[in-house]
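Appendix B. One record, verbatim.
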Amino acid sequence: MLPLLAFLTAPLVATVSQGSQSGEADRAAAVDDNNSFAIDLYSRLRAQGGNLFFSPESISTALAMTYAGARGKTAQQMAQTLHFTLPPDRLNPAMGALLNDLNAAHAGYQLRVANALWAQQGYAFLPAFLEITQRSYGAALNHVDFKDAVATARQINQWVEQKTENRIRNLIEPGALGADTRLVLANAIYFKGDWERQFDKTRTQQEDFHLSASQTIKAPLMHREGSFNYFDGGRFQALEIPYKSGELSMVVLLPNQVDGLSSLEQAITPSNAHQWLTQLRRVPSVVLTLPRFTLTQQFQLSGVLAQMGMPRAFNRDQADFSGMTKERELFISAVIHKAYVDVNEQGTEAAAATGVQMTAALARREPPPPIVFRADHPFVFLIRDNRSGAILFMGRVTNPTK
């Protein structure tokens, strides 16, 4: 039987103003905290083999809504694991301000983030908790009967599909819901944008992609030349590929050696990632090769999050979510995350949904030679909002044909 609460992630508009300078400082702190969690979570998920893709922004937002109802040691563990440094009375407005910015009008691309709640009809949730999720996260409250699992799962999944342009489907299986389910919190994120300068489709060719030093496959590799923000990290290269308007971009971290992915991933810490991103500088000429790829992945994150430091939230005897209800009977039974990304010559489309379930360059006289950035072997990439610095999506490509 499914636990008492389910949490999902899907696009919606937050209803929080940007606030004063102190509000802006809190928003920046929330971004830094979320990015630290993104890197920390990546370090755990990378242990699984193959391609990897997820939305840390979606997961952080979904769990932040859950954290709003946590108390005592449960709240302490969640804050530490999620890297939250702001007190709740400042964190929730800061997260809301970030959502408001992400959902603002955009030129040249689509970006939407949405939240919603599904609560068991007749079950009493504290008004203060519902007010926080509505005011800071724009999460509308829907009353359902979880005993009718098929109809409720259909309703939740339809909402997720609508918010992600049908890219995330069947996030919740009816068998995951039951008479003891009390709440589902949902968050979804959707992004679609064209490159600032598109790749010429006629130049895309089936070429060698090196899975390892000894294994090679054929994959569609895209080609273009131009000026990019670039950083030489010694054992790896970093390149920023902007989308139209320059407000969002993809950053590719490419190890110099074909078998250098593991070493690069071990070096990706919150402080290193921040340092590398701030050292990106414009260079006049780059010869870029990047594979075309599509990834879809789903994760059950409960075990990973418990190992990261918040086991009490998943323990029916120890969990304290008394900020949601007067009774301490709720616990997180599942955290489900599903993500999709398609990278091609025109641009990128990416979507994700998260479910948490609970039961009861300097000028030179002569131009320098072009930099060769050939991503024909495994690499790490992220999609970030350049205005706030928030990492929206993160992953790696080990085989672009899968």
